[in-house]
Design brief:
The complex is a heterodimer of chains A (517) and B (159). In chain A, a hairpin with a 7-residue loop joins strand 4 and strand 5. Chain A has helices at residues 3-18, 21-24, 29-34, 54-57, 65-83, 87-96, 101-110, 113-119, 168-181, 201-207, 212-229, 277-288, 291-300, 355-389, 391-407, 412-441, 446-470, 478-509, and strands spanning 60-63, 142-144, 151-153, 157-158, 166-167, 233-235, 244-247, 254-256, 262-264, 302-303, 310-311, 319-321, 330-332. Among the domains of chain A are: 142-219, Zinc/RING finger domain, C3HC4 (zinc finger) (Herpes Virus-1), CATH 3.30.40; 291-362, no CATH class; 390-509, Four Helix Bundle (Hemerythrin (Met), subunit A) (Up-down Bundle). Chain A starts with a helix and ends in an 8-residue tail after the last helix. Chain A has 517 residues and is mainly alpha-helical. Chain A has 18 helices and 13 strands. In chain A, 26% of the residues are buried. Chain B has a single domain (9-137), classed as Roll (Ubiquitin Conjugating Enzyme). Chain B is built from three helices and four strands. Chain B has a four-stranded antiparallel β-sheet with strand order 1-2-3-4, with helices on one face. Chain B is globular, with a radius of gyration of 17 Å. Chain B starts with 12 loop residues before the first helix and ends in a 17-residue tail after the last helix. In chain B, 29% of the residues are buried. Chain A binds chain B through residues 146-150, 164, 166, 169-170, 172-174, 176-177, 189-193, 195, 210-212, and chain B through 1, 4, 6-7, 10-11, 15-16, 19-20, 23, 71, 73-75, 102, 108-111, 115.
């Protein structure tokens, strides 16, 4: 084979790498987990290759606390390559635009620059005198610092480009107070009462140089503000985790932090695919508030037709006399009409079609139906949630099994499939749990039937996998179990991906109809 | 590296307050004067304030109280009217609390006591409508001893 052939091969390889990089990006953990291990059988994967669908384009990376500062400096550098302003000025400008480079560039070249600098609270860098602050030529005259009101040598004065000068000791006290108390290190104003120019990092580093702890705190706050302001960055909500996640869009897609916590990039709640953030929040609210208590009351009680008091019938005949002393209405429990025409037929009612009574009965039936429907989905949702709560226990059990297997002569690496199977099981349960929320809000149509088929398949596969994992392992069954567990967990992952693909495709092509309940 | 202490002695609150005290006695505007300051506690001032001629508060007398901490002027003083000597104003609650940005979020160390007094005076001078703030009775009754700096203020007008 000649050299040129090799080159050609390399080129081809490069092109291949470029195309489906959502499948090969090493940082992209979410897609790594769901990447089909085996070649999917025809028909299971709808489109090959998967086209540029919105959620498949979604990419994220996890950023450690140390990289954050360099990410911030990178953005500043990129913009500065165009602006040629001092980096500290660019940083305040970027912060003013929530780190949206494009908007800043647009505004910088489109509009009134003077106003832009005023809005961002910085001195117009093109206008300011090029005399370095703090190095004034008048050295002999003592002046009074406006903060401590004491005479001070001109040498010791410091200030921003607005030329409000104060002595270095007052600056140090001021910055320490502001940096220690403030939640936003990029929003410290000049100490002068009528000046809103913001303190930049240069003066902080210059003045606070002997106080590394304050500078560290300043850098910490800068990073905090940076992530909070940047639309495409989120802090990992897991307690104590110091990682941030950066993505290429603000979609509600689950991301996984390096600490292992999976959360929704849009709303920072625990990962809730396939249901969208909006309906997830609605569901949480529904489970928390007492709207379902109201449904129960409506389904199991009736109102007195006269005074509307709520009544639960615990026994006895149909002749009701309201206990409310001001009401004392006589009515029939079945038709809710007045008792009089019923005469002495205490246990049956033939006035079934009385219009008032019919309205009341229909209302009751509706509430009963709504309650039943809610309970159907809620029970399944809670079931998976409870199973997930045993996750830790399951991992511990699996750990024991893996040790047992090693005693039976298997290598450590050969037992790892069990742990991977539990990972798959947890993923599937988490997805299944939220498919019930998704289904609860879904209006029935042809697509929803397909969705339910997918859901049923995944549910059955997941339960079978769960059962395999609980079986005892002995030396005879070991190879058999291993094959079964591996096959099943691969199948589960694949079914899960099929289900999710279908849901996301549906979001893209707008086939899902939702009902707010 | 040896830890350098923050300059405390020469720059503590007391030093600046003493400077301001001299300045206040020598050159404060005619309508404000300092009530007998307790020499042992210069961290609490009471300033007598007379309503300016030609304004709605002409002839009235108020008492404005300043409480400083050792961090002054880096940290703003607590400024409120002494109850019983509170002007009726849409942004001043009858427990003495003043809704004025420069006393809270807008405070800067460069502002002096005289400057704050002038801002409060200006706030009174500009007023055209002598009414108490909305929700005054609720706030004033429940927040008698509260530090006004702990209230989250919303600044409606610019003074």
């Amino acid at each position: 084979m000649s050299d040129s052939d090799y080159e050609h091969d390399d080129e081809d390889k490069d092109n291949d790498d470029d195309e489906p990089d959502y499948l090969s990006d090493p940082d992209d953990e979410f897609f790594d987990q769901v990447e089909p291990v085996l070649k999917p059988p025809p028909g299971l994967m709808a489109k090959e290759p998967r086209g540029p669908m919105g959620y498949l384009d979604f990419k994220f990376t996890c950023i450690g606390p140390d990289e954050l500062m360099s990410r911030m400096h990178d953005i500043v550098k990129q913009v500065n390559a165009i602006f040629e302003l001092p980096p500290c000025t660019t940083r305040i400008l970027l912060s003013h635009f929530n780190w949206d480079k494009e908007r800043l560039l647009e505004r910088f070249y489109d509009g009134n620059q003077e106003k832009l600098f005023k809005d961002a609270h910085i001195v117009n860098p093109f206008r300011q005198a090029r005399v370095p602050v703090g190095n004034s030529t008048i050295l002999s005259v003592d002046v009074i610092c406006d903060i401590c009101l004491m005479e001070t040598s001109h040498k010791q004065l410091e200030g921003l480009e607005c030329h409000h000068l104060f002595c270095i000791d007052c600056w140090r006290n001021y910055m320490r107070t502001r940096i220690e108390d403030s939640g936003n290190a990029l929003a410290i104003p000049c100490p002068h009462g009528k000046c809103d120019i913001l303190v930049n990092e240069n003066i902080v580093y210059r003045v606070m140089q002997p106080f590394p702890d304050v500078i560290r705190r300043f850098q910490y706050l800068s990073a905090q503000t940076f992530v909070q302001q940047h639309k495409l960055m989120k802090w990992c909500p897991s307690p104590g985790c110091t990682f941030a996640v950066e993505a290429n869009s603000t979609r509600g897609v689950p991301v996984m932090c390096n600490c292992g916590y999976r959360f929704c990039f849009s709303c920072s709640s625990p990962a809730h695919e396939p249901v969208s953030c909006k309906y997830f929040q609605l569901w949480v609210k529904k489970c928390e508030d007492d709207s379902e208590t109201a449904h129960w009351i409506h389904a199991n009680t009736k109102q007195c037709p006269k005074c509307k008091a709520t009544i639960e019938k615990s026994g006895g005949c149909n002749h009701m006399v309201c206990r409310n002393v001001n009401c004392k209405a006589d009515f029939c429990w079945v038709c809710l009409g007045p008792w009089e025409p019923h005469g002495s037929s205490w246990y049956n009612c033939n006035r079934y079609n009385n219009s008032n009574a019919k309205v009341a009965r229909d209302g009751q039936a509706q509430h009963r139906q709504a309650l039943e429907r809610y309970l159907f989905y809620y029970n399944r949702y809670v079931n998976h949630m409870k199973s997930l709560k045993f996750e830790d226990k399951l991992y511990a059990q699996i750990e024991v099994k893996m040790r047992d297997m090693q005693k039976l002569g298997l290598a450590w690496i050969e037992t790892q499939f069990l742990k991977q199977a539990v990972d798959s099981l947890c993923h599937c349960r988490n997805t299944l749990m939220y498919t019930y929320v998704f289904a609860f809000f879904l209006t029935k149509n042809n697509h929803s039937i397909l969705f339910e088929d997918n859901q049923r398949d995944l549910e059955m596969a997941t339960e079978t996998l769960s059962e395999y994992l609980e079986r005892d392992i002995n030396s005879d069954s070991i190879s058999d179990t291993k094959v079964k567990v591996q096959d099943k967990s691969t199948y589960c992952e694949r079914r899960r991906q099929v289900l999710l693909d279908y849901v996301y495709e549906g979001y893209e092509s707008d086939i899902w109809e939702f009902n707010m309940m | 590296m040896a830890q350098i202490d923050f300059p405390a002695s020469g720059l503590s609150g007391a030093s600046r307050i003493n400077h301001e005290l001299k300045y206040f006695i020598n050159s404060a505007p005619a309508h404000i004067n300092l009530e007998n300051l307790d020499d042992s506690n210069i961290f609490k001032w009471t300033v007598n304030m007379n309503g300016i001629q030609g304004t709605m508060y002409e002839g009235e007398k108020f008492k404005l109280q300043f409480e400083f901490t050792d961090n002054y002027p880096q940290v703003s003083p607590i400024v409120k009217f002494v109850s019983g000597h509170v002007p009726v104003h849409p942004h001043i609650y009858s427990n003495g609390h003043i809704c004025l940005e420069i006393l809270y979020a807008g405070y800067r160390p460069e502002m002096t006591i005289v400057y704050i007094c002038l801002c409060v005076t200006q706030m009174l001078n500009k007023n055209k409508n002598k009414v108490v703030p909305r929700g005054d009775s609720y706030y004033s009754l429940r927040r008698v001893d509260r530090n006004p700096k702990n209230t989250s203020w919303i600044y409606e007008d610019e003074y």
